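Hey,
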Amino acid sequence: LDVTAHIEEGSSLERRARKRSSSVFIPQKVVNLLPQTLNDALTLKAGRSSATISVIYGFDRNYSITSTWVGESMITPVSNITFEELNTQLESSSPSVFASTIQKVATAFCRKRLDSQTTLLRPELCLLESLDDEKVKAEINIFHADMATSVITEIERQVNGTVAQTVYERL
């Protein structure tokens, strides 16, 4: 979704957004690029249709990608899940089908990225995320080493790579 389509050129909102240039997340506070009401309107919510840029993968039974589609779509999420809820399910002795499936997908993405069929997805921070250039105490670091974060981060890497490749190919 291109949020700039909702912002009038030359408006006060555009000038404020240009000054901020991006959202900032720090342990004590979140400073959003856009006003909270606009952020809320653009957030995916269960039962509400939203325009998105979607990346859809087809998989074989080993979770290897067999097809990829990137494009504009309208989606209506059935439900939302927090990192905490996902992590609880992943740590459970009987995780939900959803949690189990996305963990398998993320593991397959990780194995492909590292070119290793035996690699296991672990709840560890990558080097860049574990560096502390702000001297922030580790216990309030915004990066958490849990399985849900590892799963979502691995999926984000794959999706971001797919989007970058698609944009490059269409130039």
